[in-house]
Input
Amino acid sequence: MRVSVDPLVCEANAVCVGLAPEVFDLNDDDELTILQPEPPADQLDRVRHAVRSCPKAALTLDE
Output
């Protein structure tokens, strides 16, 4: 599984950061950084929830 972000769509609402802080982070310029593009198995449910919860649908999950 691989998670990615469309930086042109992302508004840095940080919903994903709140749901999966081990995988997502906002840098000092309010740009989303994916810390683990291929999250470990124990994070998959949280990452799926974060992708579904993104208010701008800027996250993509390729399984």
About this structure: The CA atoms of residues 16 and 41 lie 17 Å apart. The chain has a mean pLDDT of 97.
